[in-house]
């Protein structure tokens, strides 16, 4: 794989990238209170006395939030710390009622782990390991709204206290492509595990992008941190644009300042937000209201037992046991919704055809990745809003499998399924689309096609064998696509001698 370099006026520069991903934990209530976490509620309608930092209110850890963070750590093969501690990160901001954030600095819940990524889809064998330093659990702050009043800013505390996992990578990425691949892989795992919905548009997953540049293989440069980037595409853009900006500053004789920056997607540029604080600026100390978090063996065993089959393992099974191509396996496992849809389709198809999953896997995978995805893209729908269910798709595939309809007719039936929502069997019966295996009718159609194209018949017999496909197509057209293709092929071969 070609190494990514920024070519400056004075030579090549290497990019060093680390990501801090904030993932909202899937839970019905907040990290230290019972307030709802439902997205889109009226401002300040989901705020408990704890979230609002009323005097005398004490935090109580949400067991489900801790469970989801532990499961996430197990999914990335990380060390799980049975003893961890919450700290207070002290800073004043209008949307942080307590004046401090409850987080974990010194003793996080999850220690070191890692993810394997494929930076270049054209080189699937080129796998790179990205180290993960830690996952710690913390509470989110609220939200300031500056456009609601001409002279005042409003505060919405609905997000205040929402549980976040901060997943901190090592600075192991060296290109925009690697950063994008890492974020996609991490998002996929979180969604498989069910610990975060990964909805970057709603803010339930966002990334702080740390970028520095150096001469290839040299000492690490000064990094900047671009905050709250909310899409994979924007993360990749930040890496490229911020790296180019830093190279320009250095080559013009300037120095890079360690600072926090923001990304403007309209201008595709980063801009300075504030100087970067260090840990001592926040005055961390153990939270006196929360005892250390101690996890017992039964809790950890339940967390591990609850993990689903993860994307890498599922991909390997699809290739090894089901005989699917690496390309199809990648598509089918990239998103958890796709994998679940395919699993149901596979089970239903095998049951309808009285075969094993491996016998129908290629038929099901090819149909899903080409026919259904093509139709959904064309109509602007997703698998969640697909008008055709896995059971209905299995019925259609079974009709092709047993010879009731041809592949050509199946495409017509599928279009009618999309339009009407009716089942394949109902449409075939209603429209009279059953495939004919009447050899007499097929022989008659073949005889007419060959008789009408005597010149081409002579050309075929003279060695132009490619015309065989023409005769098949004409025969199928004459029989409105309802003839059994295998019988048509056999009849033409026989007639041509």
Automatic annotation (TrEMBL):
It catalyses: L-aspartyl-tRNA(Asn) + L-glutamine + ATP + H2O = L-asparaginyl-tRNA(Asn) + L-glutamate + ADP + phosphate + 2 H(+); L-glutamyl-tRNA(Gln) + L-glutamine + ATP + H2O = L-glutaminyl-tRNA(Gln) + L-glutamate + ADP + phosphate + H(+). It is an enzyme of class 6 (ligase). It comes from the Bacteria. Its EC number is 6.3.5.-. Pfam families: GatB_N, GatB_Yqey. The keyword Ligase applies. Heterotrimer of A, B and C subunits. Belongs to the GatB/GatE family. GatB subfamily. This is Aspartyl/glutamyl-tRNA(Asn/Gln) amidotransferase subunit B. It comes from Novosphingobium tardum. The gene is gatB.
């Amino acid at each position: 794989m070609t190494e990514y370099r920024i070519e400056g006026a004075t030579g090549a520069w290497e990019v060093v990238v680390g990501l801090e991903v904030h993932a909202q934990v899937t839970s019905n209530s907040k990290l230290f209170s019972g307030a709802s976490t439902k997205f889109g509620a009226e401002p300040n309608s989901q705020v408990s006395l704890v979230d609002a930092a009323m005097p005398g209110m004490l935090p109580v850890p949400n067991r489900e939030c801790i469970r989801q963070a532990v499961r996430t750590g197990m999914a990335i093969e990380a060390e799980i710390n049975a003893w961890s501690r919450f700290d207070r990160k002290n800073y004043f901001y209008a949307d942080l009622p307590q004046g401090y954030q409850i987080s974990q600095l010194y003793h996080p819940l999850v220690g070191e782990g890692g993810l394997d990524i494929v930076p270049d889809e054209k080189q699937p064998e080129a796998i790179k390991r990205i180290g993960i330093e830690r996952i710690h659990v913390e509470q989110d702050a609220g939200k300031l709204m500056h456009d609601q009043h001409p002279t005042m800013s409003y505060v919405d505390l609905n997000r205040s206290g929402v549980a976040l996992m901060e997943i901190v990578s090592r600075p192991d990425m060296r290109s925009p492509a690697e950063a994008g691949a890492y974020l996609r892989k991490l998002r996929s795992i979180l969604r498989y595990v069910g610990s975060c919905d990964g909805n970057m548009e709603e803010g339930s997953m966002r990334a702080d992008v740390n970028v520095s540049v150096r001469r290839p293989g040299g000492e690490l440069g000064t990094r900047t941190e671009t905050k709250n980037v909310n899409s994979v595409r924007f993360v990749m853009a930040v890496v490229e644009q911020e790296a180019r900006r830093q190279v320009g500053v250095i080559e013009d004789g300037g120095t890079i300042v360690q600072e926090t920056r923001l990304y403007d997607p309209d201008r595709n540029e980063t801009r300075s937000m504030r100087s970067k604080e260090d840990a001592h600026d926040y005055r961390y100390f153990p939270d006196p209201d929360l005892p250390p978090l101690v996890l017992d063996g039964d809790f950890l065993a339940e967390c591990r037992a609850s993990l689903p089959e993860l994307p890498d393992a599922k991909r390997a099974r699809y290739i090894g046991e089901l005989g699917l191509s690496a390309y199809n396996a990648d598509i089918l496992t990239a998103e958890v919704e796709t994998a679940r849809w395919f699993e149901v389709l596979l089970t239903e198809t095998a049951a309808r055809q009285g075969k094993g999953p491996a016998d129908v896997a290629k038929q099901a995978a090819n149909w899903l990745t080409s026919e259904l995805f093509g139709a959904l893209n064309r109509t602007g729908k997703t698998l969640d809003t697909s008008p055709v269910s896995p059971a209905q798709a299995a019925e259609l595939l079974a009709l092709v499998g047993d010879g009731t309809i041809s592949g050509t007719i199946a495409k017509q039936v599928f279009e009618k399924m999309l339009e009407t929502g009716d089942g394949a069997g109902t449409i075939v019966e209603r429209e009279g689309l059953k495939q004919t295996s009447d050899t007499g009718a097929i022989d008659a159609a073949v005889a007419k096609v060959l008789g009408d194209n005597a010149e081409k018949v002579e050309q075929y017999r003279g060695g132009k064998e490619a015309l065989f496909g023409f005769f098949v197509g004409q025969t199928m057209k004459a029989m409105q696509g309802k003839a059994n293709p295998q019988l048509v092929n056999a009849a033409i071969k026989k007639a041509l001698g």
